[in-house]
Amino acid sequence: MTSTTQKSGTSGAGGGGAAPAGLAAEARELLRREGVTDTRFDDYSRHLFSRDASMYAITPLGVVFPRDADEVAAVASVAGGLGVTLTPRGAGTSLAGQTVGAGLVVDMSRHMRSILSLDPEARVARVQPGVVQDELNAAAAPHGLMFGPDTSTSNRATVGGMIGNNSAGSGSLRYGMTIDHVRALDVVLADAARTTLRPYSGAERADLAARHGLEGDIHRGLARILRENAEAVATGYPDFWRRACGYRLDRLAQDPAFDLAKFVVGSEGTLVLATGAEVDLVPKPARTVIAVGHFTSVPAAIAATQDALAHDPAAVELMDRTILDLSRQRIEYASLGDILQGDPDALLFVSFTGDDEAELVDRLHRLTRTWKTSGHGYHTLEAVTPQQQAALLKVRKSSLGLLMAAGSGTRRPLAFVEDTAVDPVHLVEYTTRFKEILDRHGMEAGFYGHCSVGCLHIRPFVDLAVPGEAERMRAVAEEVKDLVTEYGGVNSSEHGDGLARSEFNRQIFGPELYAAMQDVKRVFDPAGLLNPGKIVDAPPMTDHLRDPALPEAAPVRTRLAFEVVGGMRGAADRCMNIGLCRKSTTGAMCPSYIATRDEEHATRGRANALVKALSEPDPTAALGDERLHEVLDLCLMCKACKSECPLGVDMAKLKSETQSHYHDVHGVPLRTRIFGAVRTLYRLGSATAPLSGLPNRWPVLRRLMERATGITARRPLPSFERQNLVRWFRRRGAPAGEAPLGELTFLADSFSTFTEPGIGRAAIGLLERAGWRVRLESRGCCGRSSLSKGLVDDAKAKVGGLVGLLSEGAAAGTPIVGCEPSCVLTLKDEAASMLPGDPRVADVAGRVRQVEELLTEALDAGRLTLSADSWPAGRRILFHGHCHQKAEVGTGATMALLRRIPGAEVVELDAGCCGMAGSFGFEAEHYEMSMKVGSDRLFPAIEAEEEDTVVAATGVSCRQQIGHGTERRAWHPVELVAAALEPGRPARR
After folding, report:
1. Which strand (E) or helix (H) includes residue 40?
2. In a 3-state reduction of DSSP, which class is residue 349?
3. Per-residue model confidence as pLDDT tens digits over 3-52
4. Cβ contacts of residue 749 below 8 Å, gap of 6+?
5. R_g (Cα) of the chain, nearest Å
6. Calpha distance 167→178 (Å, rounded)
């Protein structure tokens, strides 16, 4: 046991154990004196960093976010003086528990994320450890280059983490592992000295070995270890090449350059702290084509691997029915189902990469013929274009998350035997015997992974909260370890040893080689301060398990229904920390993390904070905690996590419930009441227009308003229309003609009624011309604004009233449509949580349609005709979807409608959340964050367009933000379609 563990007394529970105040205070003060100021020692931060994507949890003493290598050295110096251990961390996506530890967690990902240089001619990049793999690839792509290892977590995996883990990925057949691409490493040693590890000449080695201090000790010690253990090093390692286990003495012994940079790759932070890396880049293939074999079983798919390998592919990947079925249930991945044939039990993805498309397609055809001749599979899909491949690749890269989503409560697919690898020649037999082990122990598992290199990620479902399950898990791990050894394979092929597998290294490598590895650890880290308990001298794999250590949840009464195992805590604890919410270049999740790069502002951080609060003896009181409120404060409630998180963690819903408890403790602020009453205020604003617009024209009034209410004076308030939608509808008279399609209900939301009635008029006009009789429902409110501010009781009353109105006198199946996605979709989603068991809610939800769907149907049926001479025709239309729309129903219907405009070039932006998020962007303390989110991708994408490009957005908040941030008008799609009915130029709104 390390001195830190003894001092801190942390138990390993995911949030248990208070930090020893004296040691924490001393560490904080000493770090401050050294200029290291971004540190956290509060219980919530410690809990957030007690977990990674593994089944383990160890509560650290504190967390440090160094800004540069000097600060890392300072941290090492302070830790050494206090006897405190250090655990370096990147994205925290380790599957074996490498990035949890009892001392100080050193988060390299927040500040140290710069690409220092990139030399296209030499094909070399110098990066800090926090650089994300996809960001490095984006910088290299214009030069036709990329970083070779291709992990499925490339949108959040850091280069430093890949180095610590010796990551590989789907392309390892072609590009090897991270160890094959590292040229040099800038590191901090255990004694806080900084140095650079690289290949050395004989003279340099002699000079280094002659030095005093730890660096000299390392060079002398490694030479001695290799000399004394030559036979064990030569014979003790598994034969298979794809290894991410133990220390690579075998590679060092064969390297005349004594390359210590490569030697420490895969050492999991136990030997050095990497602060920078020089890495090789490889030519990026210009084209990729993919064959997707459809099989009736997993064994049948694996059996087709050898025929695939005979055609020299870049990768062969397996996906089983478990993942396929889960992808069909998620809107984010549902498009895969549209291109598959039949109902396969397994798919085999075979990728061919290169620059000659014709040659690649020929190889694709030859593989298809080979499989057909050999009787492998019942169909082969050939995906040649990027468009054909998009859905395939999206699901393949999300296999881990989708498999995790199959868990329920604490019964989860766990990573403990998921990283074995054998020569692909043995894969069919090996997998069959692996399945027999699982069957003997009564375990189910999901199968996916890299058949091309004999690595299948097999994750058995285990409930560690059930007595005896940990022991059963261990029994399976031991049998699998023996099985893989029998086939000359490896226990860890890309995910590393960590806490899950390090215990078995003595048996895998043999006592002599294992002792040599222990000696390596002592030479590099004499005091045992660098991430102890990983690779050597590890605790049993059943220590520090997360779920058994979590206390039983005390009952908490919630206003919203959480219909998952474990209620509200179970909904938060769905998070398995895979970190997809830390991505930054695609999708909308998670806008506040993208802006801050702070773990607590990612969905994962917030979910873990809620787990901590809901595990307290009085969870109701804990939900009112100020620190918890701070963690949740920057959540924009965009709901992207509900669809983009493979486990469907719905942070918007969790925040609403938490806010309601916070209000119980602290009261409801004036501004919250104002925003919750938005429909009443908008009605008054319309009734008093144009006087209600005076604050926008008198800056002094805005400043006074900001001082009194906290509503920022830096953003224009909405402009109200006196001739609102309700008045227009009443005064216009009944439309002439028949309504052959019958009646529908148009939901008059606050925005298209009182501030942008032109949108409502356009939609109603189109619907009536299409053959519908429109009933305008303007008497109620969906409660969205109240719900977003935690006024859940008020929201329940409002939505209950609206549901009643929508149910009155409506014929069965009468459609309900509207133009504001957040309002309409509240009836499909949150209403059920607010009014569980109310049959009217299910009826109303089933009748909700997108107005775009009905209009597209009308256009396709010829009931509406658009003019090729209208002003939107032939234009480039840039569309930004509302986050709630993307999360609940997708943007397909809107895109389909816009594409019906004659000659229009419709482009959907992948620009994340706009940052406005309803009231969020109006709040003075959130204004800067709101604009920062918009400035990340949305504003630049719009500003890069030509002036005649038409910008479209379905959400009122999005249109407000686009107008404020870019000074470009954003149209609602129905306005563009209405304009496309007739020739002419755009009218003023």
Report:
1. strand 39-40
2. strand
3. 333 333 333 334 445 567 899 999 999 999 999 999 999 999 999 999 99
4. 782, 818, 819, 820, 823, 824
5. 30
6. 6
